[in-house]
Amino acid sequence: MVFxxxxxxxxxxxxxxxxxxxxxxxxxxQRKVSLSEIAExxxxxxxxxxxxxxxxxxxxxxxxxxxxxxxLSIINDVDANMISKGNSSLKRIVxxxxxxxxxxxxxxxxxxxxxxxxxxxxxxxxxxxxLNSLFDENDRxxxxxxxxxFLYVSFCVFFFIISRDIALTCRNMEDSKEELAKxxxxxxxxxNKGIYCNCPSRARERVSGLLRLCQLDRMIASSxxxxxxxxxxxxxxxxxxxxxxxxxITVESIASELGLAKxxxxxxxxxxxxxxxxxxxxxxRHLLEAVMSNIVNSESPSESIYIILKTSFDFFMxxxxxxxxxRLIQFNEPDFFLTCGEHQQDKEFYKFLxxxxxxxxxxxxGKPELGADYLYASxxxxxxxxxxxxxxxxxxxxxxxxALKEYYYMIVLxxxxxxxx
Length: 421
Prior knowledge:
The protein is mainly alpha-helical. It has helices at residues 13-23, 35-42, 46-49, 56-75, 88-99, 101-114, 116-125, 144-170, 177-193, 200-203, 210-225, 232-244, 251-258, 262-266, 272-295, 301-317, 320-332, 336-339, 344-356, 372-388, 397-413. It is built from 21 helices and no strands.
């Protein structure tokens, strides 16, 4: 591997190590990349890495600082509110993270253990004025209203960048600056004007009020209460994740948690990723069945959107074991929430949603086109992101439920109009 700067000059060994470390993150990883792997890709010995970094932690800190510096270069020269309507900084961030996807995948791989709150705090301490009112003098979140807005915007940016990357790879397409600019415009338009930005008349068609949403809440709670508990392997996975963090889990540690020989698990699963996916499928099918039964009672297309959001929210709130694992799947395999596998019956749910004609004309994200499957998948993933990124703070269930209702209005009407409905 030849390492050069954009002007053709050679990189220092330290920069080569950093670039090699980033190069492993072409997806959200469920494991730690070893220093031996980084050394081999750099073309040096593992011992040589320690001449530049005292530990793995120092290398990872340097990688995080590099990402932060890139973001600060965009944020520092724009107005105080980086998520305001039509703000150019958000488009520039979309372009940056799309062009440097290894940065984004590295960030999200570590987000499962750290949480985005800590990154917001780092940016605030680096001088991002729009985050000053988010934290108090003890660096605790004091404005949940502002925090949930940041969560919504960050989710949309992350989710659609990764969905587009998956689409580019699956269709073997080359990217271009022109299409990337259209994509960035599309993401900001989706955030500001909602999922019906290309068919505004549908956005105002029977948008459900709070009283109706509360009626739906009771129906959804009853359906979720009837779903069986997760299987034994999945509970063991979640237990290990709580103890040592997800990226450090091995098949061996899961076997130990279950009181089994590791060979017994390897006879069923070839890797940790396969074990995670397989363990989730059964529970996800129950969730899809609950959504289908609830949507039958929907009175409008936009109301079906709320039913998907709230059924998913209630499901994961009552199943923290599933939540720990699903937060990784949400960015690696977003369509997992629509199919849960390769069996024909698993595809019936997506056909059911399409027949319901919930979305109408799809938002325009340029090329490659992002189909209805990605948009439906996002509705399952938003509640996961909301719950996981508020779990380390003292927000109440009522506050989260209120935030979800606001997200519903934002998705349907756009962030610029979707509050206070």
